[in-house]
Amino acid sequence: MKIKSFLYSKKVAPYVFVVPFILSLLVFWAYPLFSTIQMSFQSILPGQIEWVGLANYQRLLRDTVFHTAISNSLRYMFWTLVLLIPFPMIFAAMVDSRLVKASGFWKALMYLPALTSVVISGTLFRLLFAEMPTGQMNILMQWLGQAPVAWLKDDTLALMALLSLACWRWTGVNMLYFMAGMKNIDHDLYEAADIDGATGLQKFLRITVPLLKPTTVYVLTISVYAGLAMFLESFMLWGGNNSPMNIGLTIVGYLYRRGIERNEFGYASAVGLVLLVIALIINITQLIINGSFKKEGK
Amino acid sequence: MKKVLALLLTLVLSLSLFAGCDGDGAESDAYGDATAVIVVGPDSGTKMEIWTFVELHNVFYAHMLERWNELNPDRQIQMTFVTYPYSEMHNKMTMALQTGVGAPDLCDIEISQFPNFLRGVVQLYPLNDALAPYIDDIVPARLDIYSKDGRFYGAPTHVGATVMYYNVEILEKYGIDYTTIVTWDDFTAAAHQLKEASNGEVFMTSVDTGGSDWMWVAMASKGEDWTGGSEAGPANVQLDSVYRMLSMQKQWLEDGVAMISPGGQVDTEQGWANIIDGNIAGFPKAMWFMSRFLNYMPEMAGKIAIAPVPVFEVGDLRSVGIGGTGTVVSLQSSDPTLAADYISFAKGSYEGNLAIWDILGFDTVNTSVWSDPDITTDETNQFIAYFVTNPFDTLNEIKDEIGKIAVVSFSPTINETINITTLNAIFEGGMGVAEALAEAQRMIEIELH
Fold it and tell me: Which of B271, B290, B60 is nearest to B161 (CA)?
């Protein structure tokens, strides 16, 4: 009986319900986070753990490879935002409209890449962008009358390869978010606009885009994180963590190189924390600008 | 409330960055699941586990395990063989030794990864006692590369002597006799001759932007070493031999007699395709590359000859040991002495060395195998049958000329700088050789201090 009254107590029950979440948050998020902060001030080797103060951070300031990784990650993140927010939104609106036939088919087709493993798609893209004249992309270049190029050795071309992999993979997913958002828009608004003689473009710009804002902010937020945390795409595209002149190195790639490949967990922890700080700064700024922190009703 | 929620969401998402890293790891682990788990040996034997990153190595270890159990009825072993992809295996091993749990009894560690495992308090069992019965027959340099403070931690598999692989089909077609090539000047002359005869369709060789084998060849030939030869250093990449090699290669590219290796070096999918397509007439690579020919380029059988690597001046050393796998015994092993005795028997004994040649096709660390006529003239052997020349002829010719480049704790730093930045800057980016080496030296010094 005691148990029953305990469970039915309005005061206690909510806490019981959130305990699993809190526990997993503590064990899998809070503990690793604090442990990482601690490790970033240490030098960690088997049987030799020493406090080194700010040495890891001082080294980060001098480490030009790390700076390359930061600029690569930021650049990649920026372009994924430019490509993976407007276009999926337009595609979603198109699929949602009556202009497109067999919309279910298109939805499935666009979503399909997200279901493939990055490992497989990365390998396919690596072969697609091979530098030999027989690589698919180079065959295409030759059709267009261009000389074959070494895609994965040039800074800009490599970024294009990475972005095309990102677009191929994530367009469908973001489209799905936007389509879900569009379902929440009151249909009466469109009807009213129709009566007033609005064109399709006007309806999209004046109704769809503004009312999709909560979805857009959500997609923007997760895209910032996804862009900054990108690693596996680059890892698979170059068949490993090393790319010529580090053109494919990302912050997480550098963390992996230092921590896992070179057994420098202390230094890698510092890299990870810098990533966390960058991501937080960008996203909090972005959320403030978008008004997510404003008081409700304003 | 909304404000608090938004802040919480931001935090949780940020934290998921870390979870995201784990997630990625998990995904590549799924990709890197053990491809083969085999158990060999009697149930009554001591249970042991070995990790490898090349499935073929298990065939060899299993063969030697059966022999061990036959010869040692009172010290039986039951071994579980687990194969992981290269980087997953090394990463798992690093983690297991760092955390002190989960390491196997025995593990294959590739030479370029080895320095990482010798840092801190070494978590490996020294093999000095176990290797003692065989040590006189083993090339000493191959034990040194896996040692620290006089303790041997890895049992070597092969010498990795570098040789030239020539495509004789191409060379004969264009009237070039590779056996007359002794120096790099001869090689360069042949390259120009080939360009002329083939109208520039076939290149003499391909220059690597993602690997430093050519630099090792150059350094060893002149007795130089960019690690300084030992842990004491100092690291110095501004060596005369390296400068000469890079300048010569740059000139080849400018003259259109060599190409840049697709994929960065020869031992990649694109590199193999380039060999099969007949785009290059020759390249230097260690003896273990023979098995790549058998496994990935079967159509090249009967077209490839093996010869000594050219030198700058007659009298320079004509080879260098490149690559290798040291098998280690973990301190976490239930019976490290038994594990050490088994692996030393497998890799150090004459019998074991014969099996290494038969099964793996490696140039064994016990060089007396190289002159055993039963072995060297065995035409049924798959490796001897594949190549135009007998690999042992070349091996015996260069036997006393196999140089050594040290592998030390800062080797990964040098390799990373050269393979990722310097070679690309010179060959793809057009930077001057001296300038690029100075820049490399600066980057290495920043990282080491």
Answer: B290
